[in-house]
Structures are given as C-alpha cells and as structure tokens.
Design brief:
Oligomer: single chain
Order of helices and strands: EEHHHHHHHHHHHHHHHHHHHHHHHH
Helix content: over 70%
Strand order of the largest sheet: 1-2
Structural class: mainly alpha
Radius of gyration: 23 Å
Length: 514
C-alpha cells in the first residue's frame, strides 16, 4: 500500500482525506467545548457579576437581576446558534464548504477573546456578547461540518465518519468539564482563561483548512469547476484517473440546471422533499427533546438530589460515558444501521427515564435508590450516544441531494437549536413543577419518536443517494428498476459517479424524465 494511505473498513483512505475530516471536526470540538464550559464556573462568574455591579453602582446586585443576567449568559448561546444555523444553506453555497468553515472561525476568535477579556475589562456585557458570537459560530459549524464530511466520505464509511462530529462534540464537553475543576481552571483568577481557550480549536482549524480540498461535489455541481473538482478527487481518493467519477455528476448537474433552485419554503411545498424534511426535523427534535440536555445542563443538581457526595466528578463520569459510547456507535453504525441504532437508543433512554423517575421518587424512603438513579443517568447518556446523539446530524445530509441539501441542513439545524433553547429555558421551571416526575414527560416523547422512527424513517446504511431517494418514491416502477440496477455497484460513493444514470439524481432526489 502506498505511503500516506490507510485501510479502514475496506476503503483506502489518503492522508489528505484523513486530514480533511480531522480538520472539519475541530469545529465540532469547539462546539462541544462551548456547551460544557459555562456550567462549572457558574458560581464564580456570578460573584464576578456582583463585583462588577458593586464597582459600578456601589451596592450588591439584586438577586433577580443576577438570575436574569446568568440565564441570558447561558441562553444567548442558543439564540446565536438559532440565527446562524438558519443561514447555513446560503453561506455554504455562497462561500463554499471549506471557505465557509475558514471564515466562520473569525466568530470563534472574536467570541473567545471577548469572554476571555471580560474580567479584565470588568464587563459582563462582553461575556454575554462573546457567548452570542460563539453561539453563532457553533450554529454554522453544526451544519457545515456534517455537510462537508458527508460530501467527501465514501458511502461505506459515511455513517462512521458522520459519527465523528458527535464524538468531537462530546469530547469537547468532557474537556471543558475537566478543565473547569477547581483544581485546574475553575477558580476566581483563572476562569477567563477557561472561557478564552475556545479560540484554540479555531486557530488550529484556520491553520489546517488551507491544506484541505473543497468538496468535489460542490465544485463541480454548484460552481461548474470541473478541473478543480478533478484535482480534489485525485487528492481525496489517491487515483489519477477520476474521469469516470464525473459522469453521473454531469447528469445530476444537468437535472439541477433544469429545475428551480430549492428554497426552504420549497422543501415544505414540494411533495418530493416534504417527507424527508419532516423526518429530518423530527430526528433533530428526538435528539434535543429526549431530555439529554436536561442531564447536561442540570447534572450537578440531579446528582446532588441523588445523594452523591461529589457531584462534579459524577458529572465528569457521565461525560466519560458520553465519549465511550459515541466510540461504540462509531463501530456499530455501519454494521447495525442508522435506523436500528436510533430505535435502540430511543428505547433504552425511555426505559432509563422511567427507572430514573422511580428511583428519584423513592429516594427519601429508600436511600439506596440513589445508586439506581445514578446508573439510570449513566444508562440514559449511553443510549443517547448509541443513536439519537450522532445519527440526526449526518442523517439529513444522506436524505437530500446536492441541490436541496444546504436548505435542508439549515432547517434541521434551526430545529435543533430552537429545541435546545426551549429545553434550556423551560426545564428548570418544569422540574420545580413536576419534581421527580419530570422525566416521565421525556419518556413519553421518547416513545413517540421511537414509534415514528419505526414507521417512517428509512434505513440508509450502505445505500447510494439514488437508493435512499427511491425509498421515498416506491410508487414509481421506473424508479424501483433504477434502484435495483444500482444494487450491484461498488460501495464507495465516488465509485457510483459515472455508471447507469437513472431518473433519480445520484444523491437521491426523484425527477421525471419528461
């Protein structure tokens, strides 16, 4: 095997391909770090808010004002993500996938710098503005990373490589939790460094992205740059002769030129896209409304109620479980399939939610129930990372062709961030109202998403975009014939490019031949 090439899952991966995937998921690491970094130093930052208020006004900050400022500091991250995620389609088409990721790092650099300098400048406004800007970065990264990785990945590894996005997110959360310990950076003088470290992944990504090729599919189909697309294919695949890989791209481009540009509204109006976009939205909601963010945001208080003596270490333990089972999912995703793993994860989380509710309700009368509740929390996190954690992020890119994919990623990302914001704002009030029975609400939602996945979500493992699209249009005999013709093709997405064009786009959107 030539130097600089690696074998994985039967596919030969070049050094350029590995570098490109690694560089892209640095954005996901940054995303995860900024999810987890704000929780550990909460009390210290609130003290800093009070000190700033006293410096300005000569009196302690009112309790209600302090609560509002802290809630805004946490929630504005999601608001930034909601706004920017709705622009993923436009930005990725205007700048290209690689350049969009490169320029997006400016948001991370500005946001991290504002947060890191907020204590020195005695300005909680700088911290809040920094959280908003870093949220805008994360909103774009949550769409750009899986889009880029999905477009350059071989079909047989698309799921496993898509899981790397979630693995990087949970790794970032864990790093933030560990660095936020009082023995490290979670102290009065060092918390600005903890927040300012958000610039580090951005600096690395900015340094490495110039060495990564743009998505060949984007270059050829959207930008009409055949020479640049060929050069990118050669770098990613290690093959000199890539002319056969462009044939079906040409057919797809011809069809795209004949149709109207797909807008966000068109995704809901057109019967071709309506079912896939509804599936995409509900998959994103199944991730956020599963209750996992309630665990992440309020894990320390949940562990304290469960009677844990050192809740911060239990929270870090949950983070370790998070990472470990994301790795498990990475190896299972191409063996068991997306749909199966997603249902397994939803079902397991539903059972753990019921057990957790029972244990917390009986905790006062049966002290050893604290151990059951802890095991239920760890099980809840583990099942989340087996299915609902990683799968929705890259599943959207698999359901849509090159034309509607950016708009679909924008809709899915906006849905994810909106649900994230709602959970972050509402969970504490719901928890106070419902007490230990809060997670029964999540159990009911999980059961609904499980039923929906069973009846409506197709399996995409090992399928070309043609075959995935055909699953939404099985009423057409011609489309089914085309799908059957495709079944004997090679397993690499780029290998499909050039053989047996059908009335389906190469990435799955159906069109008539009229």
């Amino acid at each position: 095997m030539p130097a600089g090439f690696q074998q994985l899952g039967g596919e030969i991966l070049t050094g350029t391909f590995v570098l490109s995937v690694f560089t892209a998921v640095l954005g996901s690491l940054e995303f995860g770090y900024n999810i987890g970094v704000i929780n550990a130093p909460q009390k210290i930052i609130e003290q800093e808010y009070n000190a700033t208020w006293v410096h300005r006004y000569g009196e302690p900050i009112p309790a209600g004002t302090l609560t509002s400022l802290w809630s805004l500091s946490v929630a504005i991250f999601s608001i930034g993500g909601m706004l920017s995620s709705s622009c993923v389609g436009f930005v990725s088409e205007w700048l290209g996938r690689r350049k969009a990721m490169l320029i997006n790092n400016m948001f991370a650099f500005i946001g991290g710098s504002l947060m890191g300098l907020s204590k020195l400048c005695r300005s909680y406004e700088m911290l809040i503005l920094g959280r908003f800007i870093i949220g805008a970065y994360c909103g774009l990264a949550s769409g750009l990373t899986p889009m880029y990785v999905g477009e350059i990945a071989p079909t047989s590894l698309r799921g496993a490589l898509g899981t790397l996005h979630q693995l990087a997110i949970v790794t970032g959360i864990l790093i933030a939790q560990v660095l936020g310990l009082e023995s490290l950076l979670g102290v009065e003088d060092l918390w600005p460094i903890l927040l300012g470290l958000a610039v580090v992944p951005a600096v690395f990504q900015m340094a490495l992205l110039p060495f990564c090729p743009e998505s060949p599919r984007f270059l050829y189909i959207v930008r009409c740059q055949e020479h640049q697309a060929k050069r990118g294919l050669r770098r990613l695949t290690g093959r000199q002769d890539v002319s056969s890989m462009l044939v079906e791209m040409k057919e797809e481009k011809r069809k795209m030129d004949m149709e109207r540009k797909v807008s966000i509204l068109e995704l809901f109006r057109s019967p071709l896209y309506r079912q896939p976009i509804i599936i995409s939205i509900l998959l994103q909601l199944s991730q956020q409304l599963s209750g996992i963010n309630a665990i992440f945001y309020y894990s320390t208080s949940i562990f304290m109620k469960a009677g844990v003596q050192s809740p911060v270490y239990a929270t870090i333990g949950a983070g370790v479980v998070n990472c470990a089972f994301t790795v498990v999912s990475l190896f299972l995703i191409e063996r068991m399939g997306r749909r199966t793993l997603h249902m397994l994860g939803l079902g397991g989380m539903c059972i753990c939610a019921v057990i957790m509710t029972t244990a917390l309700a009986l905790l006062d009368s049966i002290p050893w129930m604290s151990y059951i509740s802890m095991l239920a929390i760890f099980g809840f996190v583990a099942f989340f990372e087996i299915g609902p954690g990683p799968i929705p992020w890259f599943f959207v890119a698999e359901l849509f062709s090159q034309g509607p994919r950016p708009a679909a990623m924008a809709v899915a990302g906006f849905s994810n961030w909106t649900a994230n914001f709602i959970i972050g704002m509402c969970f504490q009030y719901v928890a106070e109202l419902c007490g230990p029975y809060t997670f029964l609400i999540f159990a009911a939602l999980l059961l609904f998403f499980l039923i929906f996945t069973f009846f409506r979500v197709p399996e995409t493992r090992g399928k070309t975009f043609d075959q995935i699209g055909a699953s939404f249009h099985q009423d057409s005999a011609g489309m089914m014939d085309s799908m059957n013709m495709e079944l004997g093709k090679p397993s690499t997405e780029l290998d499909y490019l050039g053989e047996n064009s059908s009335c389906l786009k190469s990435d799955g959107t159906a069109h008539s031949l009229e």
